[in-house]
Amino acid sequence: MHIHILGICGTFMGGIACLAAAKGYRVSGSDENVYPPMSTQLQELGIVLQEGYKPEHLADTPDMVVIGNALSRGNPAVEAVLNQGLPYQSGPQWLAENLLKERWVIAVAGTHGKTTTSSMIAWILTHAGLEPGFLIGGIPANFGISAKWGKSPFFVVEADEYDCAFFDKRSKFVHYHPRTCVMNNLEFDHADIFKDLSEIKRQFHHLVRTVPGQGALIVPQADEAIQDVLKMGAWSEIHSFGLHQGDWQARLQAADGSEFEVYHREKLMGTVNWSLIGHHNVSNALAAIMAAVHAGVPAKLAIEALGEFQSVKRRMEVRGKINEVTIYDDFAHHPTAIATTVGGLRAKIGEQRLIAVLDIRSNTMCMGTHRMELAPSLQAADEIYVYQSPKVSWNAQETFASLGKKVHLFKDTQPIIEQIVAAQKPGDHVLVMSNGGFDNLHQRLLNALSLETVA
Which residues form the Mur ligase C-terminal domain (predicted)? Predict the structure, then answer.
C-alpha cells in the first residue's frame, strides 16, 4: 500500500512515516521544510521526499493521502486531493486504524510534560525488556529517535489535544483508544483553536470516554481541571498521584527534585536518583512509574530505570559550557512551564546567576493569552531577555514592568547575544526557552562566547 503524507517533516507526521515504513508500507511525502535532521532520517528509510505542495507530487496515485494539521483549504496539494477524489485521512486517524490496532496503547495527555513522560514510560518498558513501540513529539536521549515500531503489544503515544486536520477538529487523542491513559495536568492553552478552558475539558472527557472499564486513568490528585473532567463521568480505574498526596506519592529528598522517594499507599517502593530536576519532572516520573506498573512492570524495576533516564532533547538540555557559562535549551513557552523550569534550575544552582531568555512565539502567547502570568513566571531569574516576534500585538513593556530593570525587551536576536556576552560572568547559567528554532540563538551565543574567550 502506498501512502503519501502532506506535512511529512513535522515530528508527528515524520514519526508516522517511520512507523509506516517499518510496517512495509510504501511511503512518500511533501513538505515546505525538507531539511535535516528529519529529511535525512526519512530518506535513509527509502522514503521519497518532495519540496513544496505541488499537485504533480500526487501523479503516482497513492492509495491514501495523510494530511497534516498545518495544511488547510487553498493549499494546492489539498485542492488536488479533493478535486481528484483521492482517499484521505488525518494523521491520528490513519495511525489509529492502521498501526495501533491490537496494541496496548499507553497515551500521555496534558498541557505540560507529555513528551518527557512518554519518553520515561518508553524507557522504563525498554529497561524491563518489553521492547515497546512509541511515537513521541521529541527525541528521547535514551533512544535517539522519535518513533519506533517495537516488538511487544505495548505502544506509547504522546496524546496531543491539538486538532487533527482541517476536516477533523477533534483533538488528536480521541483516535488512540488507550488502555492506559495518563492525564498529567490541564490548563488553558491553544487559544487559536479553543475559546476557553471548558472547551479543552470537553475534549479531555472525549478521551476519558474511550478508555475501557478494565483500563486505567492516571491523574494528578491536586489538578482541579482534571478533577472537573472526571466529574463529567469516568468508567475506568482511577489512580491518583502527587507530591505528598494521592495513591502514589513522591517525597523529595533533594529540593531540586534530583532525589525523591516513591510511596504507594504509604508503602515505600524505592528512591529515584537521577539527572533531572524540577517538581514538574517528579510528577512526570510518578505518572510514568504508574503507567509502567499498570502494564505489568514491577515498581522497583520502574524506579531503577529512571536512574538511567537521560531526558529529552530541548528539555533543560545543556547545549554547551564556555568560560564557565552554561547554556541550556528548553521547550518551555507557557507560563506554568516557564515557572517550573526557571524554579527547577534555581533550586539546582542556588545563588549563581540565572539569565532567562524567552522567545514569545506560540500562537497563544502572541495573541496575548496568559501575558499577565509571564512576569511572575520569570521572577526567579536574575536577568531576563525577551524576544517579541512580529506577531506579538500586545504591550510587552507594560506586561513586564513589574520586573523592573532586570528585564530587557528585543525585536531582534542579535542584540540579545551581544548583551549577554558583554555582561557574562563565570558561573552564569543562561536558560533559553522557545518552542521554535529561535534563530539558532543557542549556537550563535556559544560561538560568540567562544570568540570572546579567545579574544
Answer: 314-436
Distance CA 38, CA 387 (A): 27
Residues 52 and 170 in one domain: no
Give 10-residue mean pLDDT values along the chain (455 residues): 94 93 94 78 87 94 96 96 97 96 95 92 97 91 90 95 94 96 88 85 96 97 95 97 94 92 96 90 96 98 95 79 89 81 88 91 74 84 89 80 87 90 91 85 88 57
Q: Which domain holds residue 329?
A: 317-454
Q: Confirm or deny that 111 is annotated as ligand binding.
A: yes
Are 54 and 81 contained in the same domain?
yes
Model confidence, pTM: 0.81
Whether residue 391 is annotated as binding a ligand: the answer is no
116 assigned ligand-binding residue? yes
- 9 residue type, one letter: C
b/e for 237-263, b at 16 or more Cβ within 10 A?
eebbbbbeebbbbbebeeebbbebebb
| Whether residue 348 sits in one domain with residue 301 | no
* Residue 341 among known ligand-binding residues: no
- Concatenating the DSSP letter of every residue in 393-406 gives -S-HHHHTGGGGGG
Q: What's the CA gap between 180 and 193, in Å, rounded?
A: 27
